[in-house]
Amino acid sequence: MEDLFAGMRGRTDLGSGAVWLPGFADSVAEKLLQHVHLLSHASPFRFMMTPGGRPMSVAMTSCGACGWYTDKRGYRYVRQDPSTGHPWPEMPDIFRHIAVAAAVEAGFPDFSPTSCLVNRYEPGAKMGLHQDRDEDDLASPIVSVSLGVPARFAFGGMLKTDPVRRFDLRHGDVVVWGGASRLAWHGVSPVRETFHQQTGAMRYNLTFRAINPTLFQP
Ligand code: MD3
Ligand code: FE
């Protein structure tokens, strides 16, 4: 019986609607990584440009019915991968299953992800403080799964200037960001140069999002 609940150890409410589930994805982590590698053959990781023209230090790709994209035209969700001219790879069933299970656990039984953004951090890669508001469906949570080397995560408030709390997200950790936390400012400190058995120096983060199809760009 013990093992059934292993993923539940240390469940922490981070604020209203935000639930940290340490190790929730442990039992599927290796399969998730296999799918990351498979889908990155179809839609490779790339360093996208912010609308301001700066390359991001996090390499990204997506799967699902649409994918997040940024270039000088702005942040948006697109139906096709601009790098390949083809639709994004399908979302693997195991991706959907772990995301939906985590959302249910956190009290969002109706979550149905449209897209999964896959972030790859090499040593030194970081993500500045930002809000995720390109989805329009703000009633749905975002579910994030961390894999590989840990990262120091910063979780702030509704204002960019609100104080942040910092904590480490580790291999297998899942966080569900819904309710009042959905628009919280957040970021990731530069990833330390360290080694993980399954990913080498890399950290991967999967973020599952529900997007209104009428918003997809051609
Ligand atoms: C809090 N990714 O892809 S995951 C992102 O580790 C992003 O790659 C980070 O921020 C990463 O947009 C952090 C945690 C996360 C994701 C979405 C959130 C935290 C969030 C949305 C609202 C509030
Ligand atoms: Fe984000």
Summarize the structure.
This protein is mainly β. The protein is 12% helix and 32% strand.
Explain this structure.
With 218 residues, this protein is mainly β. The protein has one domain: Alpha-ketoglutarate-dependent dioxygenase AlkB-like (Jelly Rolls, Sandwich). It is built from two helices and 15 strands. The chain has helices at 29-42, 93-105; strands spanning 12-15, 18-21, 59-64, 67-71, 74-78, 80-81, 86-87, 115-121, 127-130, 142-148, 151-155, 165-169, 174-177, 186-188, 203-209. A seven-stranded antiparallel sheet has the order 1-2-13-10-15-8-3, with helices on one face. It has a four-stranded antiparallel sheet with strand order 9-14-11-12, with no helix packed on it. A two-stranded antiparallel ribbon has the order 4-5. A hairpin with a 4-residue loop joins strand 6 and strand 7 (86-87). 39% of the residues are buried. Fe (iii) ion (FE) binds at residues 130, 132, 186.
What's the structural blueprint in terms of helices and strands?
Elements: E1 12-15, E2 18-21, H1 29-42, E3 59-64, E4 67-71, E5 74-78, E6 80-81, E7 86-87, H2 93-105, E8 115-121, E9 127-130, E10 142-148, E11 151-155, E12 165-169, E13 174-177, E14 186-188, E15 203-209
Antiparallel strand pairs: 1-2, 2-13, 3-8, 4-5, 6-7, 8-15, 9-14, 10-13, 10-15, 11-12, 11-14
Bound molecules: N-(carboxycarbonyl)-S-(naphthalen-2-ylmethyl)-L-cysteine (MD3) and fe (iii) ion (FE).
N-(carboxycarbonyl)-S-(naphthalen-2-ylmethyl)-L-cysteine binds next to β8, β10, β13, β14 and β15.
